[in-house]
């Protein structure tokens, strides 16, 4: 589906795959190599999109990509966002997407869940700038979270509703540090996220949201095939869809409209 800011996307991880899957792909134009740590895996029992999501157990699970100039935001606009389904974990600061070596050094940016009070937070510049809001997350429920810088204002959103904004005048630093999903920093032993994620996206140079919005639909085409089912009176069974081609009945894929085009 079309995204007018595709060229600005520097990381896009849908976290689609089979149950127990251990491969994670970056669908941004860059196509970065993603390294998996711990027991991070795709599961099919919980998901927002794609029939699967990434699961992090809160104890050593995270994904990592190498440092790049693409993650140096400076004083420019940016958007960090994801669909998350948090669970109660042991970590106090649970990272969503962060570029942070330790608590107070080599800390470019971090977007995280404060598990004590289930708030969202954005922090940068070696802990010298903190944006902390009062929008409470709900455990075991899918929620879209986003933080956006637009010029001298930074805003935070929960399920498309702005839950806070404040002035920002700092220039984010350029540190040679890996970017991690599901971990607050390499220097925090309790910084692991516990729960599920879909569609972690980092956009550089664009503040995608400056007011309330409808949370995005699936960001990639990694959707399971649609299946038509009928109830037999005892259970739901797949019901093959067919069409007459003038000579014989042939299989007809079930299609759905994503708002801009028909998808198989």
Comma- or semicolon-separated keywords:
mainly beta, Jelly Rolls, 264 residues, 21 strands, disordered C terminus, 7-stranded antiparallel sheet
Structural class: mainly beta
> Do you know the CATH topology of the largest domain?
Jelly Rolls
Report mean pLDDT, rounded to a whole number.
Answer: 86
| Secondary-structure element series | EEEEEEEEEEEEEEEEEEEEE
Main sheet record: 8 strands, antiparallel
Reading off the top of the CATH hierarchy, the class of the largest domain is best stated as: Mainly Beta
User: What global shape is seen?
Assistant: globular
Brief write-up:
With 264 residues, the chain is an all-beta fold. It contains no helices and 21 strands. Residues 256-264 have low confidence and may be disordered.
Could you explain how this protein is built, in words?
With 264 residues, this protein is an all-beta fold. The chain has two domains: 6-204, Jelly Rolls (Sandwich); 229-263, no CATH class. It has strands spanning 9-13, 35-37, 41-43, 53-57, 62-65, 78-86, 93-100, 107-114, 119-124, 129-132, 143-150, 153-158, 161-167, 179-181, 194-204, 229-231, 236-238, 242-244, 249-251, 256-257, 262-263. A hairpin with a 4-residue loop joins strand 9 and strand 10 (129-132). The two termini are 13 Å apart. Mean pLDDT is 86; it is low at 256-264.
Layout of strands and helices, then pairs:
Elements: E1 9-13, E2 35-37, E3 41-43, E4 53-57, E5 62-65, E6 78-86, E7 93-100, E8 107-114, E9 119-124, E10 129-132, E11 143-150, E12 153-158, E13 161-167, E14 179-181, E15 194-204, E16 229-231, E17 236-238, E18 242-244, E19 249-251, E20 256-257, E21 262-263
Antiparallel strand pairs: 1-15, 2-5, 3-4, 4-15, 5-14, 6-11, 6-15, 7-8, 7-14, 8-9, 9-10, 11-12, 12-13, 16-17, 18-19, 20-21
């Amino acid at each position: 589906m079309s995204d007018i800011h595709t060229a600005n996307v520097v990381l896009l991880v849908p976290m689609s795959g089979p149950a127990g899957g251990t491969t994670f792909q970056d669908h941004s134009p860059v196509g970065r190599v993603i390294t998996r740590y711990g027991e991070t895996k795709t599961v099919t029992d919980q998901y927002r999109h794609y029939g699967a999501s990434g699961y992090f157990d809160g104890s050593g699970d995270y994904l990592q990509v190498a440092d790049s100039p693409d993650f140096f935001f400076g004083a420019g606009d940016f958007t960090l966002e994801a669909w998350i389904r948090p669970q109660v974990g042991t970590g106090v600061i649970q990272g969503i997407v962060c570029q942070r070596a330790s608590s107070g050094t080599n800390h470019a940016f971090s977007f995280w869940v404060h598990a004590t009070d289930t708030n969202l937070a954005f922090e940068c510049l070696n802990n010298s700038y903190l944006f902390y809001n009062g929008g409470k997350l709900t455990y075991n429920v899918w929620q879209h979270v986003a933080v956006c810088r637009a010029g001298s204002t930074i805003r935070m959103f929960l399920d498309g509703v702005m839950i806070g904004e404040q002035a920002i005048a700092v220039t984010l630093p350029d540190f040679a540090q890996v970017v991690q999903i599901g971990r607050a920093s390499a220097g925090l032993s309790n910084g692991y996220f516990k729960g599920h994620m879909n569609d972690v996206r980092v956009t550089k140079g664009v503040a995608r949201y400056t007011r309330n919005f409808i949370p995005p639909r699936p960001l990639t085409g990694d959707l399971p095939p649609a299946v038509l089912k009928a109830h037999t009176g005892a259970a739901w069974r797949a019901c093959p869809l067919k069409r007459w081609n003038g000579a014989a009945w042939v299989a007809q894929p079930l299609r759905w409209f994503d708002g801009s085009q028909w998808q198989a």
